Amino acid sequence: MRVAVVTESFLPQVNGVTNTVRQVVDHLRRTGHQAIIVAPGPGPSSYDGVPVVRVRSVGLPTYRSFPIGLPDAAVHRALADFRPDVVHLASPIALGAVGLRAARRLGVPTVAVYQTDVAGFARHYRVRADLLASAWVGRLHRRVDRTLVPSTTSYAQLRAMGVGDLHLWRRGVSLDLFDPARRSAELHARWAPDGECVVGYVGRLAPEKQVRRLVEVSRLPGVRVVVVGDGPEREALERRMPGAVFTGMLGGADLARAFASLDAFVHPGESETFCQTVQEAQASGVPVVAVAAGGPLDLVEHDRTGLLYDPRRTGGLEAQVARLVADPALRADLAARAAGEVAQRSWASVVGQLVEEHYRAVLRPAAHRSAA
Predict the structure, then answer these.
(1) N or C: which end of the chain has fewer CB within 10 A?
(2) pLDDT digits over 230-245, tens only?
């Protein structure tokens, strides 16, 4: 099978969309399929032997290092030259719309993966366009042949927009990388020399992640906050949490070691369609506290595989973190239960489902929808 992946984000940007695209392309190559990636530039022109076609882009206002793809004839040319059997639209918004238009003109079926809550993203960046963004996202997904969503919350969200042919497609986790055995006593002691409980966050330091909620957590007695990642809010967060450890961006074995060396993991953002870092923490043997909204609702069963907090309740996050800090047995129990469940979610099985179930479904003869 020949698969063209049109993605809103790719290397050197490191985020959930990029990671998922990499896993999809890796699996396609391993299983004998051919792929091409179309992504906003600048960046590398190939990924592990797979061509990456770079198109014109502009930096996102207030986040200039995050490129947004622009309409570019290179998208149509790339698809026409490659002659794909299916076009995979990764988190389509701007470049995805261009890819969709090109695919329809070429008569190629499309599978869209919903991965970004654009309306929530706009609200956090104080752009008064959430209703417009929702309308745009709904229109895009109504025009593709099949839409895959990562969580039941996302399913309901797109269903309310009138999107049909929706299917749950969750994310895998790199079980060979994220493992409790990677815990480092030396790293933990360096972070918490006085024996503090290490509570960590991993991800972009951007408004929509709501990392600022960790300020109150950092004030809990006996807690050392560790922040892994980078982004536009880092400087402000460092000022507000002077006692926290900021590691910057980590990857590969360094990231896995950092995850496993935490005593608890926190993800406070309400706009997550899935929340991959929750799974990575669970696979690393670390108990999780997550917001009771969006994707984490599918990944964390309160008081069994982690703890959830109500973002509308003042002090809710600090209260749940304080429970974990005070109760090592609870930490161990939650971590063990979560690790047992996440052990079934390998990337190989998840991407295999994408290819064999979802790609092949749209290849069946079907009447193409007329242009909306």
Answers:
(1) C
(2) 999 999 999 999 999 9
| 102, two tokens | 């090109």
Nearest partner of 290 among 260, 273, 312, 311, judged by Cα: 311
DSSP strand E in the chain: where? 2-7, 34-40, 46-47, 50-55, 57-60, 63-69, 86-90, 110-113, 146-149, 166-168, 197-202, 223-228, 245-248, 264-267, 288-291, 307-309
Phi, psi angle pair for 282, to nearest 5°: -60, -45
Structure tokens at 148: 């895959």
Residue bearing tokens 């390998």: 346
Tens of pLDDT, residue by residue over 98-129, are 999 999 999 999 999 999 876 555 454 455 55
CB atoms near residue 197 (< 10 Å)? 20
Give me the count of residues in the chain. Answer: 372
Give the strand pairing for 307-309 and 288-291: parallel
Q: Which two tokens stand for residue 123?
A: 């609200």
- pTM of the predicted structure, to 2 decimals: 0.88
Whose tokens are 């990636």? That residue is 37
Closest CA to 307 of 327, 337, 287: 287
pLDDT tens figures, 208-230: 899 999 999 999 999 999 999 99
Half-sphere exposure of 266 (CA within 13 A, CB side): 33
Beta bridge partner(s), residue 110: 87
**57 - beta bridge partners?**
69
